[in-house]
Each structure stands twice: as structure tokens, then as C-alpha cells.
Amino acid sequence: MEDDGRQHGYETADPSVYLRLKAYAAENRSNQTAAEKMLWNELGNNRYGLKFRRQHIIDIFIADFVCLKYHLVIEVDGGYHSQSDQQVSDELRTKALAEEGFKVIRFTNEQIEADPKGIAEQIYDEIFNIEDSMDE
User: Fold this and answer.
1) Of 135, 76, 120, 73, which Cα lies nearest the Cα of 98?
2) Cα 123 from Cα 106, distance rounded (Å)
3) pLDDT over 60 at 2, yes or no
């Protein structure tokens, strides 16, 4: 079988926690929030030939969405992300993912629910900016 360049969870995950996170990621895919469903409806159709993964394991984290080709993580934040201790945790997570070579962008449930197509366009714009910077 020819290698298509895709990375699977076991290739981007910390092996010591992979099996535990794999089960949790599968559960998350089965129990998406309304905002995650709306965003997946926009991103999951392979528009522009871009492949996104849902609940993908990177290191010790599960990213809500990721475009591995462009190392872009999209996080969908519920209300608890506004709590100060969660904001600190989110900052540490973003830094750790950056050390793994990923850029993280965040949207709230409310932003996505209000304008899922507009949020998807922002994500595509971010990818096109990454692509342009890779060409320079």
C-alpha cells in the first residue's frame, strides 16, 4: 500500500497515554457538542482538498479538529474555558502543541453556532496564510 502522507493518532501521540486517549477520543467523536457538529459539517466535506480529523491525539492532548498537512489545530471552547484556571491550562496546552509544530486557533461554541460558515472560512483563510508562508 502506498504511503499517502497522513499521520494517524498513534504517530502523533505520546505512546505512554495513547490507548487511554484513543478510547476517550472515540467517545468524544460519538458525543459531539452542537458547535462541533456544525463545524464538522463545514470542514468534513474535504473542501479545497483539505483533510481534517476530529478528536485527534497529539502528544498527550486530544485536538478537537486538526489539519495535519498544515499543522493547524482548531479548538472549540465551551463556557468553562473562560474560567481563569482553564485559561492557564489552555495556554500551556497551546504552548505544548506549538512545541510539537502546531498552530492553535480557538473559537467559542457561541461563535460557531452564530456563523459556522464564517468560522470555516476563517479556518480556510488561516490555512491559505500558512500555505503562502510555506511558499516564501
Assistant:
1) 73
2) 10
3) no
Q: State the pLDDT at residue 80.
A: 57
Pairing of strands 72-77, 103-108: parallel
Cα–Cα distance between 11 and 8 in angstroms, integer? 5
Nearest to 52 by CA among 119, 136, 132: 119
pLDDT tens digits for range 64-119:
999 999 999 999 988 655 667 767 888 999 999 999 999 999 999 999 999 999 99
C-alpha cell at 56: 485527534
φ, ψ for residue 58 (rounded to 5)? -130, 120
Residues 3-40: b if buried by 16+ CB within 10 A, e if exposed: eeeeeebeebbeeeebeebbeebeebeeebeebbebbb
Half-sphere exposure of 135 (CA within 13 A, CB side): 6
